């Protein structure tokens, strides 16, 4: 990272901090006490191993879904993309991690192409059915396969976890919140 | 006969005045938390075959008055509670800022869904009257 980028990031963080409300109340649902985000090892969409612990020091938005999802995932991922644009340079400290519930179709290359259409920084994770089921269990995420004609889809948890710089699950944002709500909460978490 | 009619009219008018007053008086917002708790020993009870229902599959909240869902797990084991997984001793506090119907996947319910309806803040005397009546019923189980 160049000196200019560092200075710009610092200023962006200052601006984001100033924009954060005095009350500091998150719009997402807050866990008290927060617990450590369970670590996992999956195949990343960037061709490398994906572990949640590798993003210590950043705020992670962790969501679950599948690339063929037509209702929930495109809206959620677009919300993340708009949120990152709103944050400006401070978005460098925010990492989106999207774990698939559909390993049969969502191979790393497909995840990369899909996520890249929203934001090239988004990282996807996939693995075996058993690996992904274990991750979902640790995070309390549900995913139920539904056969629709010759095709199938998943009914899955649609919320997003907000994981702080120390790797703790601080909050859960239900589906449907706006980029402004995400930017509000991220501004609070970023300044910690 | 006339006296009886007048008495009845008086009682009706009195009730109407009281109800109007109840409706007109603004509602003072107190604690805005709607709290649901998993008591200690719930998991053991479930394991022994008890059907323990803590969280209804439909929760009704009111914006500005009771618009924060609070879930607490006092049991000794992690539990799926509403939309999320909660550790022993952990609480979850979810505020709502918009009147709408919210659907959550919830494996604890047979339907697999939990609905939270957030009603708008009662703005008319009639709406306040209904809210107070519902609160009264709610507080008496």
Task: Write out key terms for the chains shown.
heterodimer, A: 192 residues, alpha+beta, Glutaredoxin, eight-stranded mixed sheet, two-stranded antiparallel sheet, 28% strand, B: 141 residues, Immunoglobulin-like, three-stranded mixed sheet, 29% strand
Rg of chain A, Cα atoms, Å: 16 Å
Q: How is the quaternary structure best described?
A: heterodimer
Helix/strand order of chain B: HEHEEEEEEEH
CATH topology of chain B: Immunoglobulin-like
Gap between N and C termini of chain A, in Å? 22 Å
Largest sheet of chain A: 8 strands, mixed
Largest Cβ-defined interface: A-B, 21 and 20 residues
**Mind telling me the CATH superfamily name of chain A?**
Glutaredoxin
Question: Count of DSSP helices of chain A?
Answer: 5
Q: Please list the strands of the largest sheet of chain B in the order they lie side by side.
A: 1-3-6
Q: Do you know the CATH topology of chain A?
A: Glutaredoxin
Low-confidence stretches of chain B: none
The shape of chain B, in one word, is: elongated
Task: Describe the model.
The complex is a heterodimer of chains A (192) and B (141). With 192 residues, chain A is an alpha+beta fold. Chain A has helices at residues 3-19, 73-87, 108-116, 129-139, 179-190, and strands at 29-36, 42-44, 49-50, 59-65, 94-100, 123-126, 143-148, 151-156, 160-163, 168-173. In chain A, the strands form two sheets. Chain A has an eight-stranded mixed sheet, with helices on both faces. In chain A, helix 2 links the parallel strand 4 and strand 5 (94-100). Chain B has a single domain (2-139), classed as Immunoglobulin-like (Sandwich). Chain B is built from three helices and eight strands. A three-stranded mixed sheet of chain B has the order 1-3-6, with no helix packed on it. In chain B, strands 2-8-7 form a three-stranded mixed sheet, with no helix packed on it. A two-stranded antiparallel ribbon of chain B has the order 4-5. The model of chain B has no long low-confidence stretch (mean pLDDT 84). Chains A and B meet through strand 1 of A and strand 5, strand 6 and strand 7 of B. Strand 1 of chain A pairs antiparallel with strand 6 (91-95) of chain B, so a sheet runs across the interface.
